[in-house]
Write a structure and sequence with these properties.
This protein is of the alpha/beta class. It folds into 2 domains: 177 residues, FAD/NAD(P)-binding domain; 157 residues, 2-Layer Sandwich (D-Amino Acid Oxidase, Chain A, domain 2), CATH 3.30.9. Helices cover 31% and strands 24% of the residues. It is built from 11 helices and 17 strands. Strands 1, 2, 8, 9, 10, 11 and 17 form a 7-stranded mixed sheet that branches. The protein has a 7-stranded mixed sheet with strand order 6-5-13-14-15-12-16, with helices on both faces. The protein has a 3-stranded antiparallel sheet with strand order 3-7-4. Helix 1 links the parallel strand 1 and strand 2. The N and C termini lie far apart (49 Å). The model has no long low-confidence stretch (mean pLDDT 91).
């Protein structure tokens, strides 16, 4: 017997679960199909959430830890501290966040079909049949990662440019300054990208990525970390690897009844590799568009999403520069110059400014509980509801 749904989402990570929850809340009959045994299995991401994502999508604080600064290391071990007032990143218990999101989607009414592998689908005028699973959808969304099987099976556009990443998760390293994301610019260790050490939620995440076909060198990164903190007693909890799309949003995001979102759609910054914010935002947006289209004769979702999706024009240009893997001598010569400092500040904190002195002063005040109270704000105008 065929099970019929308004919307089936292939992929139960950030984009897919955000989409499922919103679609179910809007009254659609929704199913999520994912080959993993449970939502937190086989995590492929470091799980750093930027402030904008925290503002746009409420996530539980108990599964996150705020990190307010970035320490950027040159190959010669000189370092640059970056911060901005009011801005922060969130290190996350990524598996825990995904389990929480899955619970929220299920509570909203979505059906979660984990341990269910997508194989084939046939699109027709009024929907998509997932023949091997006995499922039918009025609309199908592929949120199944950088090498999307939905895109491959249904002949959609596919990612062709990638960064390759490796990461270990270990017990907390006590000597690693918890105020910072520690990032290493080193073309010998991470040609075309960076390496990182993140003081996370009850752990430390240590990873490296490189533009393909170069291979990231996790062993060299661990040797490099010896100059930053004591790693002699390091105890590895888990290891992971994965591909990060680096070519920008695909030019064709779907067909009549099929659409791609998240990593499957290339909605990842070609420069920084960040994609969680866009996954959450456009996962919700895709659900809104499909709901309007199926239930209220709204515009076709693919065309609207294609117009709204980020194009990353400037970041694609900068990605081509990084793909040349500048020599370490060049990185050492330029990383501490004013123009590069300004560029790094903009990349990590957008247009916000900050300084090492102000960050150090704020940190000391915060630790002592001596932050000055702000004066009461004047009452603003009352908003008229129409």
């Amino acid at each position: 017997m065929i099970q019929r749904y308004d919307l089936i989402i292939v992929g139960g990570s950030f984009a897919g679960l955000a989409c499922a929850r919103t679609a179910a809340l809007r009254g659609l009959k929704v199913a999520v199909v994912d080959g993993k045994p449970e939502p937190g299995a086989r995590v492929r991401t470091t799980g750093i959430v930027v402030k904008e994502a925290s503002d746009d999508f409420d996530l539980p604080a108990r599964l996150m830890r705020k990190v307010r600064g970035v320490r950027l290391y040159a190959p010669n071990d000189r370092s640059l501290d970056l911060s901005a007032p009011g801005y922060f990143f969130q290190a996350t218990d990524t598996a825990g966040v995904l389990r929480w999101m899955a619970g929220e989607a299920e509570r909203a009414g979505a059906t979660l079909l984990y341990d269910t592998k997508f194989e084939t689908a046939v699109e027709h005028e009024r929907g998509v049949a997932l023949t091997s699973l006995g499922l039918h959808a009025g609309f199908l969304i592929g949120a199944d990662g950088a090498r999307s099987r939905v895109a491959e099976n249904l002949g959609l556009a596919r990612n062709t440019q990638f960064l390759a990443g490796l990461e270990i998760e270990c017990e907390p390293l006590a000597d690693l300054d918890p105020r910072f994301l520690h990032c290493f610019a080193d073309s010998r260790i991470a040609p075309g990208y960076i390496a990182w050490a993140v003081p996370g939620v009850d752990n430390t995440q240590i990873g490296v990525a490189a533009r393909r076909p170069a291979r990231p060198d996790l062993g060299e990164l661990l040797l490099r970390l010896k100059s930053v903190c004591d790693i002699r007693g390091i105890k590895v909890i888990t290891r992971r690897s994965g591909l990060i799309p680096s070519g920008g949003t695909l030019n064709h995001l779907g067909t009549n009844r099929v659409m791609l979102i998240g990593d499957a759609a290339g909605m990842v910054s070609p420069l920084t590799g960040g994609g969680i914010h866009t996954a959450l935002h456009f996962g919700r947006r895709a659900a809104q568009l499909v709901s309007d289209y199926l239930g209220d004769r709204g515009p076709h979702p693919v065309g609207v999403l294609q117009r709204e999706a980020p194009r990353y024009r400037t970041k694609r240009v900068l990605r081509k520069i990084l793909d040349t893997a500048p020599s370490n001598a060049l990185i050492n010569a330029f990383l501490m110059t004013s123009p590069v400092k300004a560029l790094a500040q903009r990349l990590y904190f957008h247009s916000r400014s900050g300084s090492v002195d102000s960050f150090e002063a704020w940190s000391k005040e915060f630790e002592r509980g001596e932050l000055q109270k702000t004066s009461p704000q004047l009452r603003g105008p009352t908003l008229r509801l129409i």
